[in-house]
Design a protein that fits this description.
Elements lengths: L13 E2 L2 H14 L2 H15 L13 E2 L3 H22 L2 E2 L2 E2 L5 H21 L3 H13 L1 H4 L3 H16 L5 H15 L4 H17 L6 H17 L4 H25 L2 H7 L2 H20 L5 H7 L3 H12 L8 H18 L6 H8 L2 H4 L27 H21 L6 H4 L1 H14 L4 H25 L9 H5 L11 H26 L1
Parallel strand pairs: 1-2
Antiparallel strand pairs: 3-4
Helix pairs in contact: 1-2, 1-3, 2-3, 2-4, 4-5, 4-7, 5-8, 7-8, 7-9, 8-10, 9-10, 9-13, 10-13, 11-12, 11-14, 11-15, 13-14, 13-15, 13-16, 15-16, 16-19, 17-19, 17-21, 19-22, 19-24, 21-22
Length: 513
């Protein structure tokens, strides 16, 4: 706020004291004094520009000396200013109604928001950043009244959300403020928030280690939450970005060059697929009943996304890229399990088992540590063809097989559906079981659980009194039975628990290094 807007002559460069701050706060709370509010906001302006305009402090109406006065000024303003604005610019039915001198009150609001944003830009302490973001969220209705400050707030929240130094608390606070800002905002603001959130996520989605996976997962979950605030805008953005992914994949399939493959086989592309998978799995599956209109809007995007993921999985079907294929299978399984839409996942997994790495070539012995496939898209050169790498692949594939079969284990056609897969798995075990003894035993256990689950379904089918043509009744078959409670479902849950424990140990080991 400019000094000449104060309407009151202030000694140039007067030093702010605790006594002055307490007096202004009393006058604001007792008398709703505009004069005291102007002075407090001028002091707040000086506090917010301590670093950015240190050389110009002599021209400012007030000066801040020392951290104790700085902290007092910030806390007093954030405590008193919203109280004053609630009186002079009350919110009625979601809209700001300014009383009295409109231009004066608007100038004060602009000053407060500008200083708040400037202070947020300069802060590096996570606790202070969260404090300021929560204050921005508290006065978000005032930000919405000014297009310029709305845009600046969106940009700053996205910057904080994507900052490499930001902790989980800052990211969650940024999401909550963005969501609060987007709800009820104009279409331009919603588009800016949705686009900015997705692009910020993509820019910071490179996986360096297991710890970075946790951060990326949090950012993805935050983005998914934001995409639930406006169905129409979410569909438009999802359609555009999924189409872009499809175009990149088509170009790569046509060119078949190393450069074109690199455009697909990178973490940004894979995590973009993961982002849209989670959006569709959440709003067309997990929360479909809570937001049926959003589900109906987004559901048409499931098929093209599945086609893209399957195309990426089969683009370069070599052993080096088994980790990437496993990532893609995991995305398909998540989408299928959440939405109830059948996706043929098993062939992609069984193709890995039937590759020459297991059926023809003898693996190379190695003393390397086990490779965490979650943090890799391809095998490092020193791991190629090694037994330790292939063991990691088999552990992941068997987990996928168990999860995929478990998801279908309460379907009425399960006993027939699982026959081709079990025949292939038994044939694989017979051919290579002696070379992979531990995994042969694990596969035998899986096959036994599959047989038990098939018998359970057959027992329930003997009690039915409707024909196969009654699709509605067929879809309700064993609807009260959870997939995780079947024999193969229980087995799959135990494998997931082991994998979770292994990931936790890897994270602890990384933190200790």
């Amino acid at each position: 706020m400019e000094a000449d807007e104060s309407g009151d002559d202030v000694a140039s460069g007067a030093e702010v004291t605790v006594k002055m701050l307490n007096q202004w706060e009393r006058e604001i709370k007792k008398d709703h004094s505009i004069k005291a509010l102007k002075k407090l906001l001028l002091a707040f302006y000086a506090a917010s520009h301590m670093d950015s305009e240190r050389n110009e402090q002599s021209d400012a109406p007030y000066r801040i000396q020392g951290m104790s006065i700085f902290n007092k000024t910030v806390s007093t303003t954030i405590r008193a200013a919203p109280h004053a604005f609630a009186h002079h610019a009350p919110v009625v039915n979601g809209k700001v109604q300014v009383k009295g001198k409109v231009r004066v009150v608007q100038a004060l609001l602009k000053s407060y928001m500008a200083s708040l944003l400037e202070l947020l830009r300069q802060m590096s302490d996570a606790a202070m950043i969260q404090y300021l973001i929560k204050e921005c969220e508290r006065v978000v209705v005032y930000f919405r009244s000014f297009a310029r400050y709305t845009r600046e707030l969106v940009k700053e929240l996205l910057r904080q959300f994507g900052s490499a130094s930001a902790d989980d608390g800052v990211r969650i606070s940024s999401l909550l403020a963005l969501r609060q800002l987007a709800v009820g905002a104009t279409g331009d603001v919603v588009d800016m928030a949705l686009k900015g959130m997705y692009l910020t996520y993509v820019r910071h989605s490179s996986v360096k280690n297991m710890a970075s996976l946790t951060t990326i997962q949090l950012m993805r979950n935050c983005g998914v939450e934001l995409y639930g605030c406006d169905g129409g805008a979410s569909y438009q953005h999802a359609f555009v970005y999924i189409r872009q992914l499809a175009i990149h994949l088509r170009n790569s399939m046509q060119l078949r060059s190393k450069e074109s493959f690199r455009a697909i086989y990178n973490w940004q592309f894979v995590n973009s697929l993961a982002f849209w998978t989670e959006v569709l799995a959440t709003y067309c599956g997990d929360r479909a009943d809570d937001q049926p209109d959003l589900c109906a809007t987004l559901e048409s995007l499931v098929y093209p996304l599945v086609q893209i993921i399957m195309g990426v999985a089969r683009l370069v079907p070599t052993a080096k890229y088994f980790p990437l294929r496993i990532h893609c299978i995991g995305l398909l399984l998540r989408l299928s399990s959440a939405t109830g839409i059948y996706v043929p996942v098993l062939p992609l997994a069984i193709e890995i088992l039937e590759s020459p790495e297991f059926l023809g070539r003898r693996p190379v012995k190695s003393t390397l540590k086990p490779l965490p496939l979650d943090a890799h898209l391809k095998a490092p050169k020193e791991y190629e063809h090694t037994r330790v790498y292939l063991e990691s692949v088999l552990e992941s594939v068997f987990g996928i097989l168990a999860d995929t079969v478990a998801a279908q284990s309460v379907r009425i056609a399960f006993p027939e559906w699982v026959v081709p897969a079990t025949l292939q798995l038994r044939r694989w075990r017979k051919r290579v079981g002696k070379s992979w003894t531990r995994f042969s035993k694990q596969l035998q256990g899986l096959l036994e659980k599959i047989d038990q689950s098939a018998r359970l379904v057959q027992q329930n089918r003997t009690k039915l009194d409707f024909s196969p043509s009654n699709l509605t009744a067929a879809n309700q078959f064993m609807s009260t039975t959870e997939p995780n409670s079947t024999p193969v479902g229980t087995y799959a849950a135990s494998l997931r628990k082991v994998r979770a424990q292994q990931r936790a140990l890897l994270l602890e080991a990384e933190a200790a290094e």
